[in-house]
Amino acid sequence: MNNKFLGILAASAAVVGGVFAAAPAQALDVELPVEVKVEPFMYLRTYNSLKFTVTPGDLNATFKDATPPDYVEGQVNTLDPTAPTAQNIGAATTVEKTVNPLYRLWGPSGVTADVNVTVVNDQLTHKNLANAATNNSATMSVKAGTGVQTGVALSPTGSGRTGSVTLVFDFGAGGAQAGTYSQGSIKITATNP
Protein backbone atom coordinates (compact mmCIF):
# COMPACT_ATOMS: atom_id res chain seq x y z
CA MET A 1 0.00 0.00 0.00
CA ASN A 2 2.83 2.39 0.85
CA ASN A 3 4.44 1.78 -2.54
CA LYS A 4 1.19 2.65 -4.34
CA PHE A 5 0.82 5.85 -2.31
CA LEU A 6 4.40 7.00 -3.01
CA GLY A 7 3.96 6.21 -6.71
CA ILE A 8 0.84 8.36 -6.88
CA LEU A 9 2.65 11.13 -4.98
CA ALA A 10 5.59 11.05 -7.41
CA ALA A 11 3.27 11.13 -10.45
CA SER A 12 1.31 14.06 -8.98
CA ALA A 13 4.50 16.04 -8.34
CA ALA A 14 5.64 15.46 -11.93
CA VAL A 15 2.32 16.71 -13.33
CA VAL A 16 2.18 19.82 -11.13
CA GLY A 17 5.85 20.57 -11.76
CA GLY A 18 6.16 22.69 -8.61
CA VAL A 19 7.95 22.33 -5.35
CA PHE A 20 6.65 19.34 -3.50
CA ALA A 21 7.80 18.04 -0.17
CA ALA A 22 6.80 14.76 1.35
CA ALA A 23 8.06 13.19 4.50
CA PRO A 24 6.64 11.02 7.23
CA ALA A 25 6.43 13.96 9.68
CA GLN A 26 3.78 15.98 11.46
CA ALA A 27 4.82 19.34 9.84
CA LEU A 28 6.81 20.52 6.83
CA ASP A 29 8.58 23.82 6.12
CA VAL A 30 9.31 25.09 2.63
CA GLU A 31 11.01 28.45 2.05
CA LEU A 32 10.37 30.26 -1.23
CA PRO A 33 12.30 33.26 -2.48
CA VAL A 34 10.05 36.28 -3.21
CA GLU A 35 10.78 39.43 -5.17
CA VAL A 36 8.68 42.32 -6.39
CA LYS A 37 9.68 44.69 -9.16
CA VAL A 38 8.43 48.27 -9.40
CA GLU A 39 8.40 49.25 -13.05
CA PRO A 40 9.73 52.73 -13.74
CA PHE A 41 6.91 55.02 -14.79
CA MET A 42 6.31 58.73 -15.19
CA TYR A 43 3.32 61.03 -15.08
CA LEU A 44 3.51 64.15 -17.27
CA ARG A 45 1.14 67.10 -16.94
CA THR A 46 1.10 69.96 -19.45
CA TYR A 47 -1.34 72.30 -21.19
CA ASN A 48 -4.04 71.56 -23.76
CA SER A 49 -2.64 74.22 -26.11
CA LEU A 50 -0.29 77.21 -26.13
CA LYS A 51 -1.59 80.64 -27.17
CA PHE A 52 0.61 83.73 -27.29
CA THR A 53 -0.01 87.43 -27.92
CA VAL A 54 2.57 89.48 -29.78
CA THR A 55 2.65 93.01 -28.39
CA PRO A 56 4.06 96.17 -29.98
CA GLY A 57 6.95 95.85 -27.53
CA ASP A 58 7.70 92.35 -28.86
CA LEU A 59 8.11 93.92 -32.30
CA ASN A 60 10.42 96.65 -30.96
CA ALA A 61 7.78 99.30 -31.61
CA THR A 62 8.40 102.67 -29.99
CA PHE A 63 5.76 105.32 -29.64
CA LYS A 64 6.39 108.97 -30.34
CA ASP A 65 5.97 110.94 -27.14
CA ALA A 66 3.70 113.90 -27.78
CA THR A 67 1.62 116.22 -25.67
CA PRO A 68 -1.82 116.69 -27.18
CA PRO A 69 -2.78 120.33 -27.79
CA ASP A 70 -5.80 122.11 -26.37
CA TYR A 71 -8.69 122.92 -28.68
CA VAL A 72 -9.54 126.59 -28.63
CA GLU A 73 -12.74 127.63 -30.37
CA GLY A 74 -12.27 130.32 -32.96
CA GLN A 75 -8.60 129.57 -33.55
CA VAL A 76 -6.89 127.41 -36.13
CA ASN A 77 -6.49 124.06 -34.40
CA THR A 78 -4.45 121.16 -35.72
CA LEU A 79 -3.68 117.71 -34.49
CA ASP A 80 -0.23 116.36 -35.22
CA PRO A 81 -0.90 113.48 -37.65
CA THR A 82 2.35 111.73 -36.64
CA ALA A 83 1.60 111.57 -32.92
CA PRO A 84 1.36 109.15 -31.20
CA THR A 85 1.70 106.61 -33.99
CA ALA A 86 4.15 103.77 -33.58
CA GLN A 87 7.55 104.11 -35.17
CA ASN A 88 9.57 101.12 -36.45
CA ILE A 89 6.65 98.78 -35.83
CA GLY A 90 7.90 96.22 -38.34
CA ALA A 91 11.55 96.36 -37.30
CA ALA A 92 11.54 93.01 -35.47
CA THR A 93 10.88 89.95 -37.60
CA THR A 94 11.44 87.39 -34.81
CA VAL A 95 9.69 87.14 -31.46
CA GLU A 96 10.58 84.92 -28.50
CA LYS A 97 8.00 83.57 -26.07
CA THR A 98 8.89 81.58 -22.93
CA VAL A 99 6.57 79.08 -21.24
CA ASN A 100 7.52 78.46 -17.61
CA PRO A 101 6.51 75.95 -16.48
CA LEU A 102 5.76 74.04 -19.66
CA TYR A 103 5.25 70.76 -17.81
CA ARG A 104 5.33 69.00 -14.44
CA LEU A 105 6.73 65.49 -14.14
CA TRP A 106 6.33 62.88 -11.37
CA GLY A 107 7.55 59.31 -10.90
CA PRO A 108 8.53 56.84 -8.19
CA SER A 109 11.72 57.44 -6.23
CA GLY A 110 14.76 56.12 -8.04
CA VAL A 111 13.49 57.10 -11.49
CA THR A 112 15.38 59.68 -13.52
CA ALA A 113 14.14 61.24 -16.73
CA ASP A 114 15.54 62.90 -19.82
CA VAL A 115 13.14 65.50 -21.23
CA ASN A 116 13.28 67.04 -24.69
CA VAL A 117 10.96 69.58 -26.33
CA THR A 118 10.91 69.48 -30.13
CA VAL A 119 8.92 71.14 -32.89
CA VAL A 120 6.57 68.83 -34.80
CA ASN A 121 5.00 71.38 -37.17
CA ASP A 122 7.15 74.49 -37.52
CA GLN A 123 4.92 76.40 -39.97
CA LEU A 124 2.16 78.53 -38.46
CA THR A 125 -0.23 79.79 -41.13
CA HIS A 126 -1.98 83.17 -40.92
CA LYS A 127 -5.72 82.49 -40.83
CA ASN A 128 -6.64 85.52 -42.97
CA LEU A 129 -3.67 85.43 -45.32
CA ALA A 130 -3.57 81.72 -46.12
CA ASN A 131 -3.96 82.40 -49.84
CA ALA A 132 -1.76 85.49 -49.98
CA ALA A 133 1.56 85.37 -51.79
CA THR A 134 3.67 86.75 -48.93
CA ASN A 135 3.70 86.99 -45.15
CA ASN A 136 1.26 84.13 -44.74
CA SER A 137 3.30 82.07 -42.29
CA ALA A 138 5.65 82.18 -39.35
CA THR A 139 8.36 79.61 -38.69
CA MET A 140 8.62 78.30 -35.13
CA SER A 141 11.72 76.82 -33.50
CA VAL A 142 12.94 75.93 -30.01
CA LYS A 143 15.57 78.38 -28.81
CA ALA A 144 18.95 76.69 -28.38
CA GLY A 145 19.68 75.76 -24.78
CA THR A 146 16.03 75.52 -23.76
CA GLY A 147 13.59 72.63 -23.61
CA VAL A 148 16.19 69.98 -22.68
CA GLN A 149 16.80 68.38 -19.27
CA THR A 150 18.86 65.26 -18.54
CA GLY A 151 19.03 63.08 -15.45
CA VAL A 152 16.09 64.70 -13.69
CA ALA A 153 15.43 62.86 -10.40
CA LEU A 154 11.68 62.31 -10.01
CA SER A 155 9.52 62.11 -6.92
CA PRO A 156 6.00 60.71 -6.45
CA THR A 157 4.97 63.59 -4.18
CA GLY A 158 5.06 67.37 -4.16
CA SER A 159 4.55 69.70 -7.08
CA GLY A 160 6.63 67.65 -9.54
CA ARG A 161 9.75 68.55 -11.48
CA THR A 162 9.16 71.42 -13.88
CA GLY A 163 10.68 72.41 -17.17
CA SER A 164 10.40 75.39 -19.50
CA VAL A 165 10.97 76.23 -23.14
CA THR A 166 11.51 79.36 -25.22
CA LEU A 167 9.90 79.32 -28.65
CA VAL A 168 11.14 81.57 -31.46
CA PHE A 169 8.68 82.79 -34.10
CA ASP A 170 10.23 84.07 -37.34
CA PHE A 171 7.79 86.15 -39.41
CA GLY A 172 10.18 86.59 -42.34
CA ALA A 173 11.39 89.74 -44.06
CA GLY A 174 7.88 91.17 -44.33
CA GLY A 175 7.39 91.11 -40.58
CA ALA A 176 4.39 90.11 -38.53
CA GLN A 177 0.91 90.77 -39.90
CA ALA A 178 -2.04 91.52 -37.61
CA GLY A 179 -4.17 88.42 -37.08
CA THR A 180 -3.79 84.86 -35.85
CA TYR A 181 -1.13 82.37 -36.94
CA SER A 182 -2.02 78.75 -36.14
CA GLN A 183 -1.39 75.04 -36.86
CA GLY A 184 2.05 74.85 -35.27
CA SER A 185 2.80 72.12 -32.74
CA ILE A 186 5.50 70.96 -30.33
CA LYS A 187 6.14 67.64 -28.60
CA ILE A 188 7.40 66.95 -25.06
CA THR A 189 9.26 63.63 -24.79
CA ALA A 190 10.19 62.22 -21.37
CA THR A 191 12.23 59.01 -21.28
CA ASN A 192 13.71 56.88 -18.52
CA PRO A 193 17.27 56.16 -19.73
Task: Characterise the protein shown here.
By secondary structure, the protein is mostly beta strands. The chain has a domain at 39-60 and 79-191: Immunoglobulin-like. The chain contains one helix and eleven strands; from the N terminus they run αβββββββββββ. A six-stranded antiparallel beta sheet has the order 1-4-9-7-6-10, with no helix packed on it. The radius of gyration is 35 Å and the shape is rod-shaped.
Give the C-level CATH assignment of the domain at 39-60 and 79-191: Mainly Beta
Order of helices and strands: HEEEEEEEEEEE
The CATH topology label of the domain at 39-60 and 79-191 is Immunoglobulin-like
N- to C-terminal separation?
Answer: 62 Å
Helix content: under 10%
Query: Given the structure, what is the number of helices?
Result: 1
Number of strands: 11
Q: Give the strand content.
A: 25-35%
